[in-house]
């Protein structure tokens, strides 16, 4: 079920500061404009919301994009040093490592868009760009010239339990209370409690050298990271680092949902939104989670996929569509109900690929069955549905509305009006004023008669006919058949499978009268989230 995301006032505030504030050096875009890295190439992401989630199948390039984001910035020696690191910044060598047998990364160009107020030391607010390049046999260029910013990268290792970390076990008796202010520790405890669904009386991040160990008290029991769940410990780790790094930090999290159940994932996103507003920070993460994607406004969702040698990044993708691409069944963004297979074929072939792949067309069986199915969707509270009835029903629009209203069992005039308004924007019709088979054949016949160039789809040749004139003859003969039997008659005339004949005629009509579908396509596009 596709739910339309409703932006909150917090979403609007986050969008406003993120797209206008140049004081935090926010990352506005990443573009791989030259070469390829780990199989991804020529792609661009533009960020318009402080939290961005990148979805995709395994091996699609999510982690590569996160690494590219982490390398967008440099840092001062006095900047925040992430846990287990010697430097305050990341380099490409931290992420792109090859064995002796592997091809090194070279011939690459990455362009970063950054909203900054001190380009080259000058106080001028603008969206500017920096490029990182690596020639064959060379090194990545000009690290030190990168814009300065605190960046923290969290890989999947964060969810490895502390009792499985040999170094932490070796130092277990050496960890000492950290230096976080008391009010910050209490704040972290409260936020983590909201995410995990547990009340923490206190929290501290114990430290030894470059290592940290969370310690909390809950329900009168004190325990450390050695006895925490993986997700619980990871939440404390992320929050601690964020508050230590402070305002304007870029947080990068690989598979942000790891270790957390669905409700906790949703609550984590809620808290991160609040922290983005409070601390003016930015979060870029990867995910396979429907809950994570559906918790973000459209501009915070991205889907990356490899199609042949190309990399395609789709922005604003719905959670259902993204998870459908990753294997979740019945995840199209829009269900389209039609009467039969002929209508389904017309709609599917009429829609451009960019729209068709986001829809599921269902042949229900009859005019009344379609309207019952639409009514059922209303009763279930599912709005991502429309119906497309045959053209010969177009004169009965008001009657169709009444059927949906009656089927909804609405009792008051106010409720009936509500159902009517809902149905009016979801009932559409195929072109023409006759049943689909007749309309297709009549349109094909008229187009062939009136177009001196002939049929651009090459149907006559594909069917083994001598000319378009011979094609016209068989179409006219098939059109004399009984209602709904036209394509069976046509398949007998040309000795081809009925499905093949139907698809070829749909293709011919679309090639010669595509403007007939402009209004219908626009209506469908308007219903997509």
Summarize the structure in short.
This protein is an alpha/beta fold and 529 residues long. The chain contains 19 helices and 17 strands. Helix 12 (397-408) crosses helix 13 and helix 14 (436-450) packs antiparallel against helix 16 (468-478).
Q: How would you explain this protein's 3D organization?
A:
This protein has 529 residues and is α/β, with parallel strands linked by helices. The chain folds into 3 domains: 15-161 and 229-323, Rossmann fold (3-Layer(aba) Sandwich); 162-228, no CATH class; 332-529, no CATH class. 38% of the residues lie in helices and 20% in strands. It is built from 19 helices and 17 strands. The strands form 4 sheets. It has a 6-stranded mixed β-sheet, with helices on both faces. It has a 4-stranded antiparallel β-sheet with strand order 2-1-4-5. A 4-stranded parallel β-sheet has the order 15-14-16-17, with helices on both faces. Strand 8 and strand 9 (221-224) form a beta hairpin. Helix 4 runs antiparallel to helix 6, helix 9 packs across helix 18 and helix 14 runs antiparallel to helix 16 (468-478). The model has no long low-confidence stretch (mean pLDDT 89).
């Amino acid at each position: 079920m596709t739910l339309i995301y409703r932006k909150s006032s917090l979403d609007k505030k986050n969008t406003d500061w993120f797209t206008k504030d140049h004081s935090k050096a926010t990352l506005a875009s990443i573009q791989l404009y030259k070469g390829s890295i780990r199989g991804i190439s020529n792609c661009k992401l533009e960020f318009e919301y402080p939290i961005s989630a990148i979805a995709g199948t395994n091996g699609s390039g999510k982690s590569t994009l996160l690494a590219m984001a982490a390398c967008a910035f440099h840092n001062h020696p006095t900047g925040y040093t992430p846990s287990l690191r010697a430097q305050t910044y990341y380099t490409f060598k931290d992420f792109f490592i090859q064995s002796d047998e592997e091809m090194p990364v070279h011939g690459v160009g990455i362009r970063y868009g950054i909203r900054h107020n001190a380009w080259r030391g000058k106080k001028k607010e603008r969206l500017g760009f920096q490029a990182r390049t690596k020639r064959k046999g060379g090194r990545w260029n000009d690290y030190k010239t990168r814009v300065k910013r605190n960046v923290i990268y969290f890989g999947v290792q964060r969810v490895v339990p502390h009792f499985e970390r040999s170094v932490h076990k070796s130092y277990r008796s050496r960890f000492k209370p950290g230096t976080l202010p008391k009010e910050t520790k209490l704040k972290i405890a409260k936020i983590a409690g909201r995410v995990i669904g547990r009340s923490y009386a206190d929290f501290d991040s114990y430290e030894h050298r470059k290592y940290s160990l969370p310690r909390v008290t809950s329900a009168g029991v004190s325990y450390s990271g050695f006895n925490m769940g993986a997700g619980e410990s990871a939440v404390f780790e992320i929050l601690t680092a964020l508050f230590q790094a402070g305002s304007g930090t870029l947080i990068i999290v690989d598979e942000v949902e790891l270790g957390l159940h669905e409700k906790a994932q949703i609550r984590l996103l809620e808290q991160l939104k609040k922290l983005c507003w409070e601390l003016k920070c930015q979060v870029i993460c990867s995910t396979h989670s429907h809950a994570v994607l559906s918790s973000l406004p459209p501009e915070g969702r991205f889907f990356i996929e490899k199609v042949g040698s190309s990399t395609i990044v789709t922005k604003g993708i719905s959670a259902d569509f993204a998870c459908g691409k990753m294997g979740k069944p019945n995840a199209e963004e829009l269900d389209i109900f039609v009467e039969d297979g002929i209508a389904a074929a017309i709609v599917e072939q009429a829609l451009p690929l960019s729209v068709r792949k986001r829809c599921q067309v269902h042949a229900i069986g009859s005019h009344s069955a379609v309207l019952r199915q639409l009514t059922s969707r209303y009763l279930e509270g599912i709005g991502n549905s429309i119906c497309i009835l045959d053209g010969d029903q177009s004169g009965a629009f008001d009657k169709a509305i009444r059927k949906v209203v009656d089927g909804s069992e609405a009792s008051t005039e106010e409720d009936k009006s509500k159902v009517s308004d809902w149905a009016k924007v979801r009932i559409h019709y195929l072109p023409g004023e006759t049943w689909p088979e007749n309309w297709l054949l009549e349109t094909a016949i008229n187009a062939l008669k009136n177009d001196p160039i002939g049929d651009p789809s090459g149907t006559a040749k594909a069917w083994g006919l001598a000319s378009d004139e011979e094609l016209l003859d068989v179409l006219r003969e098939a059109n004399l058949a009984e209602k709904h039997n036209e394509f069976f008659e046509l398949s007998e005339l040309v000795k081809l499978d009925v499905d093949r004949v139907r698809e070829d005629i749909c293709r011919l009509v679309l090639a010669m009268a595509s403007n007939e579908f402009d209004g219908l396509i626009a209506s469908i596009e308007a219903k997509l989230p």
